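To illustrate the input format used throughout this study, we show a single complete record. The first block contains the structure-token representation of the backbone; no residue identities are included at this stage. The design step must infer an amino acid for every position from geometry alone.
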């Protein structure tokens, strides 16, 4: 072989090696690819509070028997900026987007997830406007379309039914669910939106307490008043991950107000359905699951106790992770003009 031929061969081998390295070091574009290519995966679940822990608990309880991967590290990240400032307290959507973008950036840097589940209707509403969404680095699945799927299916199966959408004020004001349902051909007069201000905090302090029951009954009464005297079945859609913790209270409130056969829809479990469907075939006898809870804001004992008790009935590992949560005050940082905060 000539000297020039040897050089060319060496360069060719180097090029092949570089290609091989880039392919082997390539980050899977979707969770389905990650499950096929990697034995161990990381799933980040995020919320603007602690309601998304119900999604974590469902995922942690159902994933082990799937065997789709050898192990799954589930990290719940509370994306709240400040314990006194929620996303619904921010006057401008641009500020909400900036705060969530900073939180998402922290999730990417700290955990290099294979999948991000936005288990929060409030955050899902404006996720597509974030830089994270535009970059498309990690597959990110939002809960709003899943809730819309459930409502659409229920209304198509029962053409005489109407749906009441219960959510935070920010989610209702966005009209995200209503807009998607109308785009899918659901008539506007079959949809009633009901905002439930401050209910998330009440549920966190006690999902079955009298204060929670009283608030839910008040919101249901408002919604039933909007339905009027028109007969027909009612579908109640819980479009906040917190609301499902108090599911029996919603059913009781409707029954008291003359709707004993109400259908209550909760999309939380659909996030686990997505993970299992994307994970594909069983590759291992079981999937080892670990759970972590991380929060920029402190989580008090008045919340950890009641919420942990609820989570423990579904996933003791999730309840334990909440009890041992990691407080990271510098998880992310965003300056917000005090004048842009609703008081």
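Output of the design step:
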């Amino acid at each position: 072989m000539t000297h020039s031929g040897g050089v060319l061969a060496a360069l060719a081998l180097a090029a092949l090696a570089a290609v091989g390295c880039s392919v082997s070091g390539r980050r899977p574009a979707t969770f389905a690819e990650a499950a096929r290519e990697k034995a161990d995966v990381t799933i980040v679940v995020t919320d603007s509070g602690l309601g998304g822990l119900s999604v974590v608990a469902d995922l942690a309880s159902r994933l082990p028997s799937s065997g789709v991967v050898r192990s799954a590290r589930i990290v719940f990240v509370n994306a709240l900026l400040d314990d006194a400032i929620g996303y619904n307290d921010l006057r401008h959507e641009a500020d909400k987007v900036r705060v969530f973008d900073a939180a998402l950036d922290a999730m990417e840097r700290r955990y290099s997830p294979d999948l991000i589940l936005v288990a929060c209707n409030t955050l899902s509403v404006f996720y597509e406007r974030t830089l994270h969404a535009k970059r498309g680095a990690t597959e990110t699945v939002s809960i709003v379309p899943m809730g819309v799927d459930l409502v659409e299916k229920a209304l198509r199966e029962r053409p005489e039914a109407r749906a009441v959408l219960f959510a935070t004020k920010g989610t209702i004001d966005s009209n995200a669910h209503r807009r998607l349902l109308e785009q899918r051909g659901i008539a506007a007069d079959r949809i009633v939106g009901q905002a439930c201000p401050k209910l998330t905090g009440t549920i966190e302090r006690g999902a079955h307490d009298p204060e929670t029951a009283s608030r839910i009954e008040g919101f249901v009464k408002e919604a039933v008043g909007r339905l009027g005297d028109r007969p027909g079945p009612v579908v109640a859609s819980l479009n906040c991950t917190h609301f499902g913790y108090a599911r029996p209270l919603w059913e009781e409130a409707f029954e008291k107000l003359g709707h004993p056969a109400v259908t209550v829809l909760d999309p939380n479990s659909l996030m686990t359905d997505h993970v299992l469907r994307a994970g594909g075939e069983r590759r291992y006898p079981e999937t080892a699951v670990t759970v972590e809870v991380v929060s920029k804001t402190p989580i008090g004992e008045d919340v950890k106790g009641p919420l942990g008790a609820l989570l423990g009935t579904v996933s003791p590992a999730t309840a334990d992770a909440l009890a041992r949560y990691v407080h990271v005050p510098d998880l992310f940082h965003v300056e917000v003009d005090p004048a842009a905060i609703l008081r």
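Structural context for interpreting the output: The first helix runs from residue 3 to 24. The beta strands are 40-47, 71-78, 115-118, 140-142, 162-167, 191-195, 234-238, 263-265, 288-295, 326-327.
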